[in-house]
Amino acid sequence: MFKRNKITIIGAGATGATTAHVMALKELGDIVLVDVAPGIPEGKALDIWEAGPIERFSLKVVGTTDYELTRDSDIIVVTAGMPRKPGMSRDDLLKVNAEIVHQVVAQASQLSPNAILVILSNPADVMAYVAQKASGFPYHRVIGQAGVLDSARFRAFLADALQVSPKDVTAFVMGGHGDDMVPLVRYSSVGGIPVEKLLPQETLNQIVQRTRTGGGEVLNLMKISAFYAPASSLAEMVEAILKDERRVIPVISYLDGEYGEHDIFVGVPAIVGGNGIEKVLEVEFTDEERTAFAKSVAAVRKPLSMLNY
């Protein structure tokens, strides 16, 4: 008998609810939207589900404050946490969000011991580490979302500068999800042509800097964190897992010797499929890129050292 996938999304704020909407449109599976605020997840889930006859999706979307309804989920997406406010860094959120993520993951993982965790809560690299400790899941079944989003921004800015479709731009970002992230210009191309041959270095430097502060740019304009692009990024990752697509995408993965790093979650290109992280791919660095990546990893380790894990 055919059985639909089951996706739990923890956190029914703007990002969580938009993620549920995007995943419903993609028909990735039945969705359970969870939040601590009574009425909010139920109402948003009902609103999304009622769009089904128009958008022509047949899946079920339900909202709840009861984790029992999440039992036997295939995917658990975590967006819960305090949102970032103007003037607040991602690291400012560290301790309060670590407590929230630990609590919600511990509850959900007990009810869905075979699920794959996808973590968005900020600071995402550190929260992926917290989620793994809270769940006890194998490292390959805990994935952080940042690289897809940061790379999408990078690609969008490159496409705009080149006046081409972003569909034809290939680029990715490595390192921590913060101001020290590493957009790799040398590995970026449009239609197979290296962008370094199409854009002046000054323009590329500006795009790299804009990518690093892309989240803050949206935050300063809206006074709340971005949620449309993050939701689409989460949906792309979940789709790659549930359809076992073996996509090569940048994600936050646990490193155990790759790139010379150990016991840390950080953004790297990886093969993502039915088992979660199928393989971390190691790219060759120039000395400058290696130094930038090491700096970014160090920026992740600093807040991580403040937690008792």
What low-confidence regions span 5 or more consecutive residues with pLDDT below 50? Answer: none
Mean pLDDT: 95
SSE-based structural type? alpha/beta
One letter per element, helices H and strands E, the order comes to EHEHHEEHEHEHEEEEEHHHEEEH
How much of the residues is beta strand, in percent? 15-25%
Please give the share of residues in helix. Answer: 40-55%
* Distance between the first and last residues' Cα: 43 Å
The tally of helices reads 10
Keywords:
globular; 14 strands; 309 residues; alpha/beta; six-stranded parallel sheet; three-stranded antiparallel sheet
Give a short synopsis of this structure.
This protein is α/β, with parallel strands linked by helices.
Topology at a glance:
Layout: E1 6-10, H1 14-25, E2 30-34, H2 40-49, H3 52-55, E3 61-64, E4 75-78, H4 94-111, E5 116-119, H5 124-135, E6 142-144, H6 147-162, E7 169-170, E8 173-174, E9 182-183, E10 189-190, E11 193-194, H7 201-212, H8 214-222, H9 228-242, E12 247-256, E13 262-273, E14 276-280, H10 287-304
Parallel strand pairs: 1-2, 1-4, 2-3, 4-5, 5-6
Antiparallel strand pairs: 7-10, 8-9, 10-11, 12-13, 13-14
